Fold this protein.
Amino acid sequence: MPIVNQNIDFRTARKHNATETSCSICENKNCLINRNIGNFYDSQFINNKNNIKCKKGQQFIIEGAPVNGLFLILKGTVKVFRTGINGREQIVRFAKEGEIIGHRGFGTEEYYSIGAIALQDSVLCYFSKEGLQEALLKNPKFAYDMMLFYANELNRSENKVKSISQMTVRERVIDSLLYIHRKFGDLRGFLNLPLSRKEYADYAGTTEEQVIRVFSALKKENLISAQGKKIGINDIQLLKKEINDHNYFLDT
DNA sequence: CCATTAAATTCAA
DNA sequence: TTGAATTTAATGG
């Protein structure tokens, strides 16, 4: 179970530690800020970021907490979720290095509508709302890149609504596997992100038992293999075909 | 959904 | 590095 709220104060989290990284020497090329670093007129806000270390399982965004900045993943992976009516967790997405977290509430919302938990020990960069707003107003290229990011996110989330409402459980589980595969890739024949069956279920919008049963069926058909949390995809073509046959689209 | 057993992971010595 | 303790997977009711 997730470690509950260790009272992180992001404003006072201090920057004098070994993982402190200045954006100017950061090697994270997926990072939107890093990609635009040459374009900034005024890089003041970059120097005001905080690096936050999160242990595996630590929640760093709590649903309902006030938004006063935005996170970027410097290192590690994270799951972003929303709690449904019956207390069930719906995983919105998995995020890896360079991705932005907590952007939805950025412009107008005052409170987070999502929670986020580190899946591994992770390092996050935290930028204040004020600094970012100023940077966006001053730097059109940066603003444009942000807009593209938002458009992408919207597209993805619209696809997800479709998949959850129209696909069968088996298709949703397969879709989830393909999503993880696309996003995190393979490592020595196994998906490069260890997830529990519960987490697959929360992403696919089903239950742990259903996932386990679909996995068992897929194993019998030799489409996947599994050793604990390590899932191997044996026949990605057939899996893709099963989704494509029903005319569903794959997101990023 | 819950209970049971098997399997895998974690943790600390 | 091991194995005991804890967590997670798998199955069947």
